[in-house]
Design goal:
With 214 residues, the chain is α+β, with helices and mostly antiparallel strands. The chain is built from 8 helices and 6 strands, in the order E-E-H-H-E-H-E-E-H-H-E-H-H-H.
Amino acid sequence: MTIVKIIKQSWNYYNPFLEVTPLDYFKYLRIVEGSARTCYQSVGEVEKSEQFVKKLIKRGHLSPLEHINISLMIKTDRSVLSELTRHRLASFSVESQRFVKYNEIEFIKPVWFSDEDYIYTNKSYAIWVDSCDDCEVDYKTLLLLGQQPQQARMVLNNSVKVDLIATANLREWRHILSLRTKMDNNPQMKELMTSILIRFEDDMSVFFEDIKEN
């Protein structure tokens, strides 16, 4: 068995500053409020924008949230990718296994294996690592035999790392997070989406504070 490169899934905001600042949050509030007030032809006080948006969400008037898009850089495995791209109202740009030729393959560690799991102490973990090792060896062998990346990729498993950019409006992120943080989800997906929800609650509280992990 060779040593395969194993990493954890991760994500961050995809913008020049890789964060949502308090100023951004205030801007989002004003855009959402202004969009909603266009419907009612009303005016309001700036300092009460959060309360106004909170009432919108409580009433289920969510279309004004569609005016704000949030893009994320996500590093995860192919199983999560296949589930995430089912959300058709989001947009995705995905690392291509057809055109990317891997010199070294990274594998995303399943979240049900802990940092304390090693191949000589956990048989299940050892089997998983061995399968990653086998598919990497087979992939590189096929390349040496003249196969193109799009042909050699057929031996790769679902744990292979994939980089993607995901963009959705606030309403769609609310929908995605409310579904994908539930207990009956793929644990890999649930762990990723829960970490996103926690960060969103910190950075854009009024838009996500009513969504609870369950």
